[in-house]
Design a protein that fits this description.
Number of strands: 9
Distance between the termini: 83 Å
Order of helices and strands: EHEHEHEHHEHEHEEEH
Largest sheet: 7 strands, parallel
Helix content: 25-40%
Shape: globular
Length: about 325
Amino acid sequence: MKAPLVVLGATGGVGRGVVQAAIDSGRPVIAVARQAGELKALKAGYPHADLTTIAGSVANDAAGAKLARALRKLGRPLAGVVAAVCGSAERGRLLDNPAEFLRRKLDEDLLPHLAAARHLLPLLAEHDRGGTYVLIGGPGSEHPWAGYGHRSIGAAALRMLARVLHDEARQLAVRVQLLAVDTPVCTEFNQRHSCPEWPSALSVGQRAMALIDHDISEEPPRPIVPYASRVVSPSVLPPRVRVPSPPASRADAGAPASHAPLSDTDPNQRHAAPSTTSLDTVPKTAPSPACAQDPDSASDEKSQRCLQDARALLKSLTSKNPNQEPTPR
């Protein structure tokens, strides 16, 4: 029988996806969240699954130690932990708020991950099972969000925390990895204003399960693992597509037409700054962000045509018109 998986933040948007992915794979789950009522509703949704619920928190060291004692009382060796915890979806510019604002957001978004790791990593190491501890990180760690700079700072700090824990946990024979999801996630809480190209909470959960089960072959394991909905072999990748440049204007009619190759940038990273502040929630008052494009989706061809039209318009506006009167100095 498989050892159980602990899911922190199990009643959140992404946490629910992790729980579903674990149950679908036949693994027992120990769901941890603050609200006992939400845990009861979660358990009711899986009446035939091996699902244990614990009302607890990892907000600080005291709460983390209490949770570790509750898990130890179950007497069940653990296969791993998935930490899908996050703070509130609060908006605010750093320059418009006192320093205490950033301190409070780090207390909510970053330090709980440290409190959880301090008390649960030794628990994973107790039975020498080589368990895996997976943190799920949200977008904004590499590019700042307008109005959500505190989230960018917290996400960037979480990446470094994962690297430090990955290095220090080697002495415990426990693998620590951060699943870096650089786009918003579609959950049951934000479906009404989410983009079709956003990964689902279930797909993120399945990716986390692949890390728990060591299904991703990598030697040595990386501390930061980028999320990918599909892993495509290089042998089956389509050939490089070349997009012709827009037609030359009359002023440049004698110049040869040039062809610009498609950018090598990953299409899944071409998106505007997300309006959400966490993996679990997207502020309902914020506009939906531009959707990331899948390279194999039908909408990608449309986006290329739009880009080509925009280039043509820009060139026509910036090209010199021989019939236009000179601007007076």
